[in-house]
Design goal:
The protein has 121 residues and is mainly β. It is built from no helices and eleven strands. The strands form two sheets. Strands 2, 4, 5, 6, 9, 10 and 11 form a seven-stranded mixed beta sheet that branches. It is globular, with a radius of gyration of 13 Å. The N and C termini lie far apart (40 Å). The model has no long low-confidence stretch (mean pLDDT 96).
């Protein structure tokens, strides 16, 4: 069974930074693509960034260079670094294991528990 355990997040002021972590077990982590999603109240969960097993990254345009996804296969962990946080970044952030076909990301069924990021001004 896949388990994705998240950490990080919290309440921060606009302009500050956070690093979210997602540690996986029950999978061959180094063979998996990983995705980060976020969901704001009343909105659909949206894909934020992905990283392939080889470290290729893809970002949604709205992150505007402020987000960086990375992975540490030795720790079975994927990270999402968020810099210069804005109020509109406020959401619950989720990680997911999946795979790429070409550049399209397919999420698997297992999700992290979610971590709240709240940005105040």
């Amino acid at each position: 069974q896949v388990q994705l355990v998240q950490s990080g997040g919290g309440l921060v002021q606009a302009g500050e930074s956070l690093r979210l972590s997602c540690t996986a077990s029950g999978i061959n982590f180094n063979a998996k693509s990983m995705g980060w999603y976020r969901q704001a109240p009343g909105e659909q969960r949206e894909l934020v960034a992905t990283i392939s097993p080889r470290g290729a990254t893809d970002y949604k345009g709205f992150v505007k260079g402020r987000f960086t996804v990375s992975r540490d296969d030795a720790k079975n962990t994927v990270y999402l670094q968020i810099n210069k946080l804005k109020a509109e970044d406020t959401a619950v952030y989720f990680c997911n294991a999946g795979h790429h076909i070409g550049t399209y990301y397919y999420p698997d069924k297992s999700w992290g528990q979610g971590t709240q990021v709240t940005v105040s001004s």
